[in-house]
Amino acid sequence: MISPVIRKDRASFIDCRGFPGFCRSLAGDGRARRQAFAGWRQKGSVKPLKFPHCRPFYPARRRCSFMQVDNLFDATSALIVVGGTIAATVMRCGLRDTRTAIASLGGLFGKRFDASRARSELAGHVREMQTHGVIRTAPHHFGDAEFDEATDALIGTRSIGALQAAHVAHKRRRVVRNRRAVRTFNQAADLSPVFGLAGTLVSLSQLPGGAEGAGDFTTAISMAVLTTLYGLLLGNIVFAPLARVVARVGAKEERERQKVLDWLEGQLVSALPAHARPAAMEKAVASIAARGSRA
């Protein structure tokens, strides 16, 4: 059962093929036609009819005009902002710092330092030193350059000072690399809005001079807005957070390594000769021995 549907277009007001007389009876002013049709329906003179040639009219779904994602992507604007930012960062920081920043970025997604694994790998080595002594213990490497070198220095010199010196040397190199990476990302974060402004100026320089280039005018304004947007997003959502992430990950790794080193020193102090023990550790060992004798 299909009722006639009034439609506003230039061809006809009712899509009823084969019933031109009925369509002509509703011709005239639109408001008067609707009022008359409503009056006929109230009186019961107009009833839903079954028209075999009628096609129901469904209005097209409205397209969301709040935001069109396709308009947020422009290759030229991205090339100006991203390419200019990377080129300026490389020229300002140098290739060495840039490679360090890329390596630190890869380290965020790679295998990080695991304190529990390092402690478990060192536990057997420490037990052997406590049982047989430092001199008769063979070096044991498990893949961590700092602790491999530190234990080698400890066995070679039989001194806690050599262990601490190896740790300090590796820590200094890690801190320097981390600072270079953070500085590089901060430079990129500062330069991104600058190239967003540069892209805006480039796009505004392409504005047409006459009234015949309305399309070119719209394109230039759109490019100006997008380059500014890309510069702000690239600096504040990409490079600045990356700098903070690299700094936090580096600080966390140093804390974990220091905990493992403190644990290693506490375990090995009893296996070292008396002259190789630091004064503070010697006092700690003496106090522990005194408490054990009193017990």
From TrEMBL:
A GO cellular component entry from the record: plasma membrane
Membrane-topology annotation of the record: Multi-pass membrane protein
Regions that span the bilayer: 188-208, 220-247
Protein name: Chemotaxis protein MotA
Keyword terms of this UniProt record: Cell membrane, Membrane, Protein transport, Transmembrane, Transmembrane helix, Transport
Residue ranges occupied by any MotA/TolQ/ExbB proton channel domain in the UniProt entry: 175-257
Species this protein is from: Novosphingobium pentaromativorans US6-1
Pfam families, per database record: MotA_ExbB
Domain of life: Bacteria
Annotated localization: Cell membrane; Membrane
Major localisation: membrane
Protein's GO biological process: bacterial-type flagellum-dependent swarming motility; chemotaxis; protein transport
Family the entry assigns: Belongs to the exbB/tolQ family.
Protein transport is among the record's keywords: yes
